[in-house]
Amino acid sequence: MTLFTCLSAAAILFFAAHVILLFTSFPKGGFYKTRYLWSHITLWLVGVILFAMTAIYSGSGISSLADIFDTMGKRLLILVVTFAVSGLAHMIVRFLVLGNKTARG
C-alpha cells in the first residue's frame, strides 16, 4: 500500500468520523459539546491530510486532482476553505440550530 493510498484512506475515514460525530452531537433536546468539538477537529485533520497530499504529490502525475494544486497558494486554499467551512458551520449551528438546547458533556 502506497503512502498516497494510506493518506487517501485516512482522509476518508476522518471525514466519515466527522459526519458521524456531527450528527450524533445533537440528540433530541440537547447538545454534546465535546462530541461537536471532535467533529470539528476531525474536519480540520481532513484538511491537513489533503494539504499534505497535495504538497507531496502535486506535479507527480499520480493524481490529476492533486496536480491542480501545483502552487503553495493553491495548497493553502485547502486549509483556508477547511477552516472557513468549519467556522461558517459553527456559526450556523450556534445561531440557527442550537436555539435553547442545553449543552451536555
**What is the helical fraction, as a range of percent?**
over 70%
Across the major sheet, the strand order is: 1-2
Distance between the termini: 39 Å
SS elements, strand count: 2
Unreliable runs: none
Spell out the helices and strands N to C: HEHHHE
Structure class: mainly alpha
Average pLDDT confidence is 90
How many structural domains in the coordinates?
Answer: 1
Which value, in Å, is the CA radius of gyration? 16 Å
Shape label: elongated
Largest sheet: 2 strands, parallel
Strand content: 5-15%
Given the structure, what is the number of helices? 4
Keywords: Membrane, Transmembrane, Transmembrane helix
Transmembrane segments: 37-56, 76-97
What does this structure look like?
This protein has helices at about 5-25, 35-55, 65-70, 70-95, and strands spanning about 30, 100-105. Helix 1 packs antiparallel against helix 2 (about 35-55) and helix 2 packs antiparallel against helix 4 (about 70-95). Helix content is about 75%, strand content about 5%. With about 100 residues, the chain is mostly helical.
Characteristic terms for this protein:
single chain; 105 residues; mainly alpha; 73% helix; elongated
How is the secondary structure organized here?
Blueprint: H1 3-23, E1 30-32, H2 33-57, H3 64-68, H4 72-97, E2 102-104
Parallel strand pairs: 1-2
